[in-house]
Design a protein that fits this description.
mainly alpha; Serine Threonine Protein Phosphatase 5, Tetratricopeptide repeat; 16 helices; elongated
Length: about 280
């Protein structure tokens, strides 16, 4: 590791370059030491504080990484990267959504047309259940990337949480126009159609989702419930069995207690299914 660095660095620039080289090679602890040595020479170096933050984040020292990025932001308050990285850690690692919004907002002040900071502000608002604000930022993100799957999908989720189901369906359709083989979008459409009592539409969406992931107990169960509403005994039993095989505890309990199965419980076939699966998975 040290073969090309045998001469001991004795200046800011040499320690900083050494840190960059070690970081690029994945030697994060050694890189961290180098950036700290560089900062001994030049405490006001934005890039040494920033790169130190990058290394600390890679080492999962998230609080220390935020401190390092914050120090960089004090030195250059209009530099996008240190604000953005702070926001990402607040969002992903600590679920501190107000702090994330503040950091991403500062990032946007430095780079107003940035898709990622805009999208992540929307995500932070969605996590806070500020759905109207989230939608505003997803819409802004879509002005920058009109074919962005995630902004359409998350906007659909926010609209769904608001019970704006028709708008949510429109957002999911736009997401599917970009990524037609996305499992979760088909599943969410199925849930909405099911909620709207459009059972045929729901079944169609769940079947498309299962074509993409047939190991989803959740989707098999929702499909079973749709068939139960239609009084389609065979479809209901077959789909319920698939769900039970994938998640026995959860869906045996659901079959025994959920109201969807009240009319099925007296049936011999249903009783045999529950008996056999209970014995198998007990």
């Amino acid at each position: 590791m040290y073969q090309s660095l045998e001469c001991r660095p004795d200046s800011y620039q040499e320690w900083y370059r050494r840190g960059n080289k070690l970081r690029a090679e994945g030697y994060y602890h050694e890189a961290l030491n180098s950036y700290e040595r560089a900062l001994n020479y030049r405490p006001s170096s934005y890039w040494s504080w920033y790169r130190k933050g990058v290394v600390l984040e890679a080492l999962d020292y998230y609080s220390e990484a935020i401190d390092s990025f914050a120090q960089a932001s004090v030195i250059e308050s209009d530099n996008y990267w240190s604000w953005y990285e702070q926001g990402c850690i607040h969002f992903s690692e600590f679920q501190q959504y107000d702090q994330a919004i503040a950091c991403f907002t500062n990032a946007l002040n430095a780079y107003p047309q940035d898709y990622w900071a805009t999208y992540r502000i929307g995500e932070s608002h969605r996590k806070k259940e500020n759905y109207e604000q989230a939608i505003v930022f997803y819409n802004q993100a879509l002005t920058m990337r009109p074919d962005d799957f995630w902004s359409y999908y998350r906007r659909g989720e926010a609209q769904q949480c608001q019970e704006n189901l028709e708008l949510a369906l429109q957002s999911y359709d736009l997401a599917l126009a970009v990524e037609p083989n996305d499992y979760w979008t088909w599943y969410q459409k199925g849930k909405i159609w099911q909620q709207l009592s459009q059972v045929d539409q729901a079944i169609n969406c769940y079947e498309k989702a299962l074509n993409l992931d047939d190991a989803s107990a959740l989707t098999w169960y929702q499909l079973a419930c749709c068939y139960a509403v239609q009084k389609n005994t065979n479809g209901a039993i077959v789909s319920l069995e698939k769900a039970i095989n994938l998640d026995p505890h959860k869906y045996l309990e659901a079959a025994a207690n959920q109201p969807e199965w009240k009319e099925f419980r007296p049936q011999v076939g249903f009783q045999l299914l529950i008996k056999n699966k209970s014995e198998k998975y007990s």
